[in-house]
Amino acid sequence: MKRFVLAALTATALATPTLAQRTPPPPPAQVAPEIERLRDAALNDTIAWDIVEGLTTEVGQRLAGTEAEERARQWAVARLTALGFKNVRIEPYRMPVWERGAESAEIVSPFPQKLTLAALGNSAATSAAGLTAEVAVFPSIAAFQSAPDSAIKGRIVYIGNAMPRTQDGSGYGAYGTARFTGPALAAQRGAVAIVIRSIGTDHHRFPHTGTTNFPDGVKPIPAAALSVPDAEQLERIAARGGPVRMKLVLTPRMVGSRESGNVIAEVPGSDPSAGIVLVGGHLDSWDQGTGAIDDASGIAITAAAAKRIMDAGTPRRTIRVVWFGAEEVGGLGGAAYAKAHASERHATASESDFGADRIWRFEVNLPAAALPIADRLQTALAPLGIARGSGLGGDGTDIGPTLKLGTAAIDLNQSGWDYFDTHHTPDDVLDRVDPAALRQNVAAWTAMLAVVANAPEPIDAVRPR
User: Fold this and answer.
1) Is position 232 annotated as part of the catalytic site?
2) In what order do the strands lie in the sheet containing 103-109?
3) Strand 276-282 and strand 318-324: pairing?
4) At what angle do helices 297-312 and 47-58 cross, to 10 degrees?
5) CATH of 33-98+256-453, one of 3.40.630.10, 3.90.25.10, 3.40.50.880, 3.40.50.970
6) Which of 291, 257, 267, 237 has its CA nearest to residue 68?
7) Catalytic residue among 69, 70, 266, 327
8) pLDDT in tens, 7-46
9) Which CATH architecture group holds 101-251?
């Protein structure tokens, strides 16, 4: 019977023109054996781990504009110089600085209990004694937006969300609105404070901090994120009916203008006219953990890969490694870099700022003449389990301003299944980094740099994304 079915299926396939005449796929693009050797050797890399371990141990948390971020810049210069990079330097700029203070919350009634929360960057302060008010509970940003002002004015607003776990991290953009714009909208509508459900996928009692922004003319209000279990507890209490009153104590402060900066290092190329290959991540971190995932791993991965190219000889294009400052508080380092280097010719820009899990996909935004580079990348990255995506490359806060100038982009996408369990929490520490996954990242970036930095094709400007 099985033979009969197989014969019948074969006959059907041969009789179907679309199956019988299917064109076989083209052969894969060839890559030089040296690239394969560099990629495979990078699977034994120890440099990236040493950078992550050193930065998180010897500096720790690195809030932008603080003394800790300054120590991180000095540490970075010493480490990059010791690794053999050229033209290592700090490019400083000034920025307004926000610092965390005391933070606590408790349900006063109907069921008194303490809650766990963290202030959002740029939050205003309550008095030292705190404020107590009724909570207006909204299960989503949409429910909040559709509510009348009378349900908001004079209250502490709560906005819930249930961010989904996705590989590409797409839930962050959709559900992050509660943090990105919720506090400013609440302030404009007369709320005295706001608490949100943390923008995260975990169920640990660790709140996720992050920046919020109050536009000019909008007076900031106290703003914080509850841990996911505490947010769900608040929702259960509210569902029982009757008013819920909360006491909130937040004492952050703006401390004026201070210095931040970008740390830059280079692997000089043999052809200055071919353009710069820009890679990196951000040196600063939030102040709750030690920033191992976000983003010590990213700067370590890109620097380790660039060193491997440097040790293998002189590439055609200069590779510029940038450890950007002040990313977490608004991408100030990326904006400063683009302004300072707008007159230089950048061939491509790429950043690593999505943790340390394995890379699963790459995407490009290349001019037509340079598309053979993407074909070679597909061949070079496939043995690492990395597929070619169909989207347009060009993701990253720090490289965003440079991409807007028309620079081509290459993205190496890490898996985000677990990233938002740790993102912006006290749990962002060294033991969340998987050494094997870190090495796979270094191998992928090494292969990418070996292909792109030495590509014979011109890489001209593209239409900005």
Assistant:
1) no
2) 113-115, 103-109, 245-250, 131-138, 156-159, 193-197, 223-226, 117-119
3) parallel
4) 140
5) 3.40.630.10
6) 291
7) 327
8) 333 443 444 445 446 778 788 899 999 999 999 999 999 9
9) 3-Layer(bba) Sandwich (3.50)
